[in-house]
Structures are given as C-alpha cells and as structure tokens.
Design goal:
Layout (H helix, E strand, L loop, with lengths): L1 E6 L13 E4 H4 L4 H12 L7 E6 L5 H14 L4 E9 L2 H10 L5 E4 L11 E7 L8 H11 L4 E6 L9 E5 L2 E6 L3 H10 L2 H9 L4 E4 L5 H12 L7 E2 L20 H7 L7 E5 L6 E5 L2 E3 L1 H10 L13 E5 L5 H9 L2 E5 L7 H5 L5 E4 L3 E4 L7 H15 L3 H12 L1 E12 L1 H14 L7 E2 L2 E8 L2 E2 L6 E2 L4 E5 L3 E7 L7 E11 L9 H4 L1 H11 L1 H5 L6 E2 L1
Parallel strand pairs: 3-4, 3-5, 4-9, 10-11, 10-12, 15-16, 15-17
Antiparallel strand pairs: 1-7, 2-6, 5-6, 8-9, 12-13, 13-14, 17-18, 19-26, 19-27, 20-21, 21-24, 22-23, 24-25, 25-26
Helix pairs in contact: 2-3, 2-5, 7-13, 10-11
Bound molecules: 1,6-di-O-phosphono-alpha-D-glucopyranose.
C-alpha cells in the first residue's frame, strides 16, 4: 500500500467555533477540505507517529466517507491504532468515554450536533484531547494556524475498511479496532446510577418515551433503557440513526421536538419523556404536563445528586456557562460548594473537571454532564433523572415545584434570531459594547438597567483568558438579559438573547415563562434595537 503525499494550499475559514469546525456538508465534500483540516489537526498535535486515536460520528450524511478518509490519513501519518465505532457511529459522550477508557491520544468526532444533516445540511469535525474533552482554544488556534500554512497532506492508497462488524483489521501498518459503540459508555452508566432502583421503577409500571430523533442516541437508549432497565419495547422512538435524521432537526427543545412536548401536555402523556440531539450530548427532560428548562435541570440534579451512587459522596463544585440561569448557583450556595461561571462552550469546563474543582456542569443549551467524561451527555442526564425519580418516587412536576419552593424560581427563556445578516448582527453587538458605560441607571422598557458588562473569563486553573463572551445586563427588577452571537451556526449569524427573572420561593412559581419574561424581552429588544437592526419583529426560536 502506497502513502501518497498530496500537495495542497490553505483553505480560508478553517477556524473552529464554539464546538469544532462546522460548515455546510457540501463545503466539507469539496476536494481537499476535510483532508486539509485533518492534516492540520495531526500536525498541530505533534504528529501521529506510533499514536492511537478514537474516531466516530453521529452517522450523518458523509460520516462514513469522511471516516474512511480519516483512517487512510491516520495510517499514512504513522498511527499505530485507531478505535472506531461500528458503522462509524459514536455519540459525542461515548467518544469521550472511549478516549478516556482506552487512553487514546484524543479523538476526532464527526458531527454538527443538532444542525440538520444531509447533502444540503451541515457537517462538522472536532478534535478532543487525551483527557476526552473538546480541545481548548490554545489547541484549536494552533490547528487553525496550521491550516493557514499547510502545503501537503498524507493519505494511504487503500481499499475502504468494512466497519460493519466488531473486529480488529489492518490498514497498512495501522490497526483499525472496530468497537461496539455502546459498550464502554453503558458500562460507565452502570457505575454511576442505581440501575436496580430504575429497573424496579419500570417494573412498577412507570411509563416513558425517549425520542432519539433519528440521530445517534437510538442504539444507546434501546440498549440501556429497554434491554437493560426493562422499559417497555417502543419506549424509544425514532431510534434508527439516519444519514439525514429523517429530514428533521434533532435539537431537543420545545420547537424542534414539538411532538414530544405536545404528547407530554396531553392526557395520554406517559410519566416521563426525554429526547437527545444529533450527536447525543444534549437532552430535554419532560414530565407529565411539565417541561424542565435546562438551567433548572442542572439545579435539580445538583440538589439531588447524592441519590445517585456515583455522586453519593457529594459534589466538589458546580459549573455553568454564563448565559445559563443562576438556579444552580443557589444550590451550590446551600451545599456550601463552589459555583463557577464560564463562557459558552463545553471546552471551558475541562480544566475545572480535570482539577477536581467541579463535579457537575450544565448549560442553558440543553447540555448537562459531569466528571465521568469531558462532554455533556444526553443519556447520562436522562438516567440521572430516572435515578432521582426512582428514589424519590415523585413525579417530575412535584420535584420541580418542591425545588422552586425551596430555592425560588429563575424564570428563563432564550430567544434566537436565526440566519440574520452577519454584518448587521455584528454591528448590533459592537454598538451594545460601545454603549456599556452609559447603560447603568438607564431605563429600558419598564425596567431599569442596574449594571452592564461584556463577559470576560480567566480560567482559575490554567490562567487562560477569553474576552468578549457576551454582553450582560442586570436589571434592578431581579432580572437579567444576555446578548451574544452563536458560534455554531453555518448560515449568516444567529443572535441569542437570554432572558431570566428571579422569583422568591414564596412568590408565583407556576406561571408561563414567556409571560413572566415579556417585560424583560421588551427591554432587551428595545435596548439592542433588534427590530430595526435585524429587520425581524420576533425571534425564530424561543426555548
Ligand atoms: C455547542 C457547545 C455548547 C454550546 C452550544 C451552543 O453544543 O458545546 O457548549 O452551549 O454549542 O453554542 P452557541 O450558542 O455558540 O451556538 P453542541 O451541542 O452544538 O455541540
């Protein structure tokens, strides 16, 4: 087999965003696009000679083809071994678990998360470091710099490898170990949660629906929930991973998982429901007649963590991204542990987890996870909730109501203005930033701005810094608005406006968040001039 050295030239725009490099699938399929980026990763991490790597993806269109290219390039770059999920599948948390359990020199995860897939959809790739988490910015910047100077890549001329069965094959001098994509992750879940209690819960007639949205989590959810824990057959719906996710948008939120939310608000609702996203790291939690906001989910998991065997010894700390509501901070305060506020992006939790400062992490964008891996983990969150339900023998609605009564409620919503003009969105943010000094004391709608800043972060472990992470406005009326541009979209820009208002435990706790937050939304819209600047009179998505 022949190693080919292919001359190439740098391709603009290969700078990873919030979570790796995400582009239209057609862009990734352009000649040399994937190859340039993959070679840049290999070069930026000091080459692959004699090393091992984990590779897998969410099964979206181009996943299988891209994996064959990556394998041939890894072989040509001297890798000793690549671990790859059967059929090229590995959920993002499972890939993190494999990297850690098998101690590979990191991994390549192929996914554009919840973004739609297919020829006209999105594709993505990211490098995770040996600790199992997304590469920090120092590494992604090194990859980007390399992509701007690359002049050749190496690839083995060889036949495709058959990835359909668990086996160890050879590709040139490299071993290709095809793994059951579920086993290592499922093994980890068994060590964290009270499977006997959950099994007893299902045996008592507890009913559940899990919507895998035709994305990667189907096989994981079937194996764990139905085969192992005894949930009735059919609990997992849309469980077959499809290259185009069945034409859907596998983002587990009330907009894109509307059907599941409608079911849970109807008389036919089962006791519990959940959904996960394209690559299995996000989650949505629902009870009968109840949607659990991701920020609340983090707080409830933290407050009840000791009910799960893996966390029975207590938590070291809780970390949340800045735009996530402050509900988890209230739990941390009560538990007497540290609360950390990081920029958006799971990669910012890595150092805190590695240093043992935080045990649980979470984000408003439907991500929750812990120190068991270095990614957020959809099914982990679902199992954690099941563990709590099994031990408390109470419904989701009751658990949430009791939580709010104890801690108060952080009413929360996120309004997204999607695919807006990039220049207009950047001008809106620049203008907000410029006006920060004059905002405190200024009225906004019916509210008054108490403080405003542009969030900067200094990592308490390695001292690295990240500036311009979002404009925060705190209002005198126990409310907050945050503005930032998404770093994961592939079409124009997406403005995210995060809105919250705190209500004491003795106040009205069961109101509709959109109604409670209408005044905060109006104030935020007015102060940023959203309608005039973006030409939009309403958000596309309200989570
Ligand atoms: C990624 C990141 C998350 C982030 C989310 C949204 O998630 O891992 O940390 O909260 O994107 O980011 P943005 O607001 O910049 O679009 P995922 O699930 O898309 O990989």
């Amino acid at each position: 087999m022949n190693v080919r050295t292919v001359p190439t030239t740098p391709i603009e725009g290969q700078r990873p965003g919030t979570s790796g490099l995400r582009k239209k699938t057609a862009v990734f399929m352009e000649p040399g696009y994937l190859e340039n980026f993959v070679q840049s990763v290999f070069d930026a991490v000091g080459g692959l000679d004699g090393k091992s790597l984990t590779v897998g993806g969410d099964g979206r269109y181009f996943n299988k083809r891209a994996i064959q290219t990556i394998l041939a390039m890894a072989a040509a770059n001297g890798a000793a071994r690549v671990l790859v999920g059967r059929d090229g599948l590995l959920s993002t948390p499972a890939a993190s678990a494999v990297i850690r359990a098998r101690r590979t020199e990191g991994g390549l995860i192929l996914s554009a998360s919840h973004n739609p897939a297919g020829k006209t959809g999105d594709f993505g790739i990211k490098y995770n470091i040996p600790a199992g988490g997304p590469a920090p910015e120092s590494v992604t910047e090194a990859i980007y710099r390399r992509s701007m100077e690359i002049d050749e890549y190496r690839i083995l001329d060889c036949e495709d490898v058959d990835l359909s069965t668990v086996a160890t094959l050879r590709m040139g001098g490299m071993a290709v170990e095809i793994l059951d994509p579920v086993a290592i992750h499922a093994g980890l879940m068994r060590t964290l949660f009270d499977f006997d209690a959950i099994r007893a819960l299902f045996a008592s007639g507890f009913s559940m629906r899990f919507d895998a949205m035709h994305a990667v989590t189907g096989p994981y959810a079937r194996a764990i929930l139905e085969d192992e824990l005894g949930a009735s057959p059919g609990t997992v719906v849309n469980g077959e991973p499809l290259p185009d996710f069945g034409g859907g948008h596998p983002d587990p939120n009330p907009v894109h998982a509307r059907g599941l939310v409608d079911l849970m608000m109807s008389p036919e609702a089962p006791d519990f429901a959940a959904a996960s996203d394209g690559d299995g790291d996000r989650n949505m939690i629902l009870g009968r007649g109840t949607y659990v906001a991701p920020s609340d989910s983090l707080a409830v998991l933290a407050a009840n963590a000791v009910l799960a065997p893996g966390y029975a010894g207590g938590l070291a700390g809780i970390a949340r991204s800045m735009p996530t509501s402050r509900a988890a901070d209230r739990v941390a305060r009560k538990l007497g542990i540290d609360a950390f506020e990081t920029p958006t992006g799971w990669k910012f939790f890595g150092t805190l987890l590695d240093a043992g400062l935080a045990t649980l992490c979470g984000e408003e964008s439907a991500g929750t996870g812990s120190n068991h891996v270095r990614e957020k983990d959809g099914l982990w969150a679902v199992l954690f909730w099941l563990n709590i339900l099994a031990r408390r023998r109470d419904g989701v609605k009751e658990i949430l109501a009791a939580h709010w009564a104890e801690y108060g409620r952080d009413y929360y919503t996120r309004h997204d203005y999607e695919s807006v003009d990039k220049d207009a969105a950047e001008a809106l943010m620049a203008d907000l930033r410029r006006r920060i000094p004059e905002l405190p004391g200024r009225p906004a709608g019916a509210l008054t701005i108490a403080a405003a800043d542009d969030f900067s972060y200094r990592d308490p472990v390695d001292g690295s810094t990240a500036d311009a992470q979002g404009v925060r406005m705190v209002f005198e009326e126990n409310a907050r608005a945050v503005f930032r541009l998404s770093g994961t979209g592939t079409d124009g820009a997406t403005l995210r406006v995060y809105l919250e208002r705190y209500e004491e435990g003795s106040g009205e706790l069961a109101l509709d968040p959109q109604e409670v937050l209408a005044g905060v939304a109006a104030a935020a819209t007015e102060i940023a001039g959203i309608h005039a600047r973006l030409g939009r009179d309403r958000p596309d998505v309200r989570t």
